[in-house]
Amino acid sequence: MGHPGSCTAGSSSKPYLGFADGERIDLAMGPNTVFSPRDALSGDIEAIECEYDNGNGQPGDPPSAAYCDGQTASGDWPFTVNRDGSFDYQVHNDGDLVAAFALPGKYFSLSAITCNGAHACVWYVGENYNSFSSPHVFSNPFYVSVPFTPGSSFPIWLVVVLVIAAALVVSGIYVRFVRPRRGVRARA
After folding, report:
1. Segment 151-184, tens digit of pLDDT
2. pTM of the predicted structure, to 2 decimals
3. Whether the Cβ atoms of residue 174 and residue 139 lie closer than 8 Å to each other
4. Which residues on adjacent β-strands are paired with residue 103?
5. SS3 sequence, the chain?
6. In the chain, what are the domain boundaries?
């Protein structure tokens, strides 16, 4: 993805990276041992936004789907990961990107979870968001704030890359943010 050296690791501690409500991003993950097209669920993954809450009101990965909003799943999910467990949403879906949403917000005003400029979120990427015992990972936390307006300094296009190696499964997932390749545009 991108050119060598064109990515920077997103922070897993404050300050978290921020997106605009409705901003289109890519979700991708390199080779890993978490997902496999040969596992019980065939490596069919989906992604949804979740509160960055450990279930006790403290920052951390959510313990269940009760902390997530299934409405945030893009229409092209689920799809099957590659043989090595890797995936790239944008490549798999002909340049389409995933939208990040402020919750509740303009797009999902009745959401039961809170993801905004003051309450961090994470992406759940996994094989069954109704069962957190199924293979899954979480992105680094991020904020979602008011929509991007032309002329502001907020970066328009960012790519979220979930990078994991077998040795890092226990220690966590790293999020990378990369500008999409030239000539690739998201469908509206």
Report:
1. 444 343 333 334 333 233 333 444 444 434 444 4
2. 0.75
3. no
4. 115
5. CCCCCCCEECCCCCCCEEEECCCEEEEEECCCCCCCCCCCCCCEEEEEEEECCCCCCCCCCCCCHHHEEHHHCCCCCCEECCCCCCEEHHHHCCCCCEECCCECCCCCCCCCCCECCCCCEEEEEECCCCCCCCCEEECCCEEEECCCCCCCCCCCCEEEEEECCHHHCCCCCEEEEECCCCCCCCCC
6. 14-178
